[in-house]
Amino acid sequence: MPPHFVRRVLPRPGPARPGRPRGTAPRHHRRRRGLLAQPPRGQRPGVPPQGPQLLESAGNLHNLRVAAGAVEGEFKGAYPFVDTDVYKWLEAASWQLAQQPDEELESAVDRIIDLVAAAQQPDGYLNTWFQVRERGARYQDLRWGHELYCAGHLIQAAVAHHRATGRPELLDVAVKFADHLGLVFGPPGSGRPIDGIDGHPEIETALVELYRETGDRRHLDLAGYFVDRHGHGLLGGEAYCQDRVPVREATDVEGHAVRQLYLLAAVADLATETDDPQLRSAAQRLWVAMTAAKTHLTGGLGAHHDKEDFGDPYELPNERAYCETCAAIASVQWSWRMALLTGEARYSDLIERTLYNGFLAGVSLDGERWLYVNPLQVRDGHTDPGGDQSARRTRWFRCACCPPNVMRLLASLEHYLASGDEQGLQLHQFTTGRHSHGGMSVRAETDYPWHGTIALTVEDTPDRPWTLSLRIPQWCREFRVQVAELSYDETDAPVEDGWLRLERAWAPGDSVVLELALEPRLTAADPRVDAVRGCAAIERGPLVYCLEQVDVPGGGLTTSSSTPPARSP
Length: 569
Prior knowledge:
Blueprint (H helix, E strand, L loop, with lengths): L3 E2 L45 H8 L1 H9 L14 H17 L3 H17 L8 H6 L13 H19 L3 H16 L18 H12 L2 H13 L27 H18 L2 H17 L31 H18 L3 H14 L42 H10 L6 E4 L2 E4 L5 E5 L2 E6 L7 E8 L5 E6 L7 E5 L2 E4 L9 E6 L6 E6 L3 E5 L11 E5 L2 E2 L25
């Protein structure tokens, strides 16, 4: 039966579950080939086995032991949010356990969860900085103390662990902390003692996930309260911490890039769960503003080293670009939520660009060294400052937010590849693996992005027609798709909103082969971007290529030019 090309938008807006996305089955999906499929050499995908050792040497686990009363000692670390390094690693390890059993990893997770539970105070509060170093100063420095930020990462780790294992130990800790927050924070007239927000958003999207996991509406309502109190001057009215303009009124992304994007991920979550048209409109409006004028070609975000924030529109420097690795991660998280909320492929286009270029640069091939910042140009003779802002990959950082953040995204990549609903399956990203939903199952084989061929085989199918939707990347000008014995190309296979939709009564063994043309191309920036006016970038498929000294005759870059010589008259 020939495929019927479907023009409706898929997936439809509805009860999408970012973090537990429709159409993916982490226990059944296995990545094998392609750039996204390759774990660091000799490592588990996304979860280096040295994680607990790094947390031990940096003092994070020591702080928990002191807070638990198991040992005596002083707080170790320079920042009040070092607990989040532990929670991010726990989240990464939990997603890894969802993919494959690992007794050694599970034992390490259990030990650390026991330590976290022991450090929690009877009323649910948990933060080693304020339990060990700044005792008695709870919630007195919401701008810099990051207590709710830490709580958010704890909650996300707990949800991941519960989904992966079904065990309640860490989820119980998270629920107890969330219940405590619900008794402390609330708007004027609520009877709660504090009307406040955290200087670093994160608690908001975590509370939505906790609502999804437990069904307790109080967590969703608390998330909505926190989102809507941003922009009302509770932290001094600074753009840096998203306190200058209420999100429903905002017209541009601003301030600290990671903080802004974590907040907007929560806006998309709330729009999904509450069907709030104002929040949905705000999320769409701000995503367009970001991608149109404040996103580097690599998907990198954050123009300024100072305050790690967005610059002005079209202020996109190369050598002073900050492009924090965590900002790339936050961008992927937000865009995935927007993809599920709207069904539009453009969000997954940005995920692809960011994953391959803005994100993967942040970790070395051996999985043991990291970049906090990702400048797009490093001049010949550059004096590297070392530390967190080094242009060279580093073993660990004083502010180690990025390494465990990379670990948790790598370990949960299955969550960003495909979705499913009652109409069928949607493939957002191309990598080898099996995608299943509602009795529909398709296996993909590819070594994308090195080659543009994606071979799909239907393995399971219900006894009814359904739609297989394939994202055609925005950069792709030519493609061919073969369905059984029938072949189509871009002239007769209509693509709507970035989706090629094939509807038919499928049978096990049916094949689809999609071939995307990966012709190299030169890409020029908008002329309003001063830093690269007159320059061109080299791209092939989803990849942005980097020129290094070893590629250039004479070993120097600053005098290189691709401008052809002038013709003689």
